[in-house]
Write a structure and sequence with these properties.
This protein is mainly alpha-helical. The chain contains three helices and two strands; from the N terminus they run αααββ.
Length: 118
């Protein structure tokens, strides 16, 4: 997200990002897995991530994610564990998660490298 887009209407940008993330249970061909946020405007990347987590939590109550295969749930749990350790050892990484399920996860990293899954 550009700082100009966030400066103009951060709330709408967050709502649209959450809608894109939740559409098609994150399995659509255009489902975002990474959102880069320019951190030089009125809305810092951490504030965007926190607000996105709040919006995903609200959307999960209205539009719950569909069922997952056990292997997919295990992969999400493994990825979360990786980032829990990373966040515990670095001020550069923060994580927000749905607490009752693996429905959504938001990870903030200042490292711009996309983490592929193994």
């Amino acid at each position: 997200m550009t700082r100009e887009a966030l400066d103009e209407n951060a709330e709408a940008v967050v709502q649209k990002a959450a809608a894109d993330v939740t559409a098609w249970n994150q399995r659509g061909c255009l489902s975002p897995h990474v959102i880069y946020v320019e951190d030089a405007g009125k809305v810092a990347a951490e504030a965007f991530a926190a607000r996105l987590a709040d919006e995903l939590d609200a959307m999960e109550k209205t539009f719950p994610r569909g069922p997952l295969k056990t292997s997919d749930a295990a992969a999400i749990a493994a990825r979360r564990s990786f980032y829990e350790v990373r966040a515990a050892h670095s001020l550069e990484t923060k994580m927000w998660v749905s607490h009752e399920s693996t429905a959504w996860t938001v990870i903030l990293e200042n490292d711009p490298h996309f983490q592929i899954r193994a």
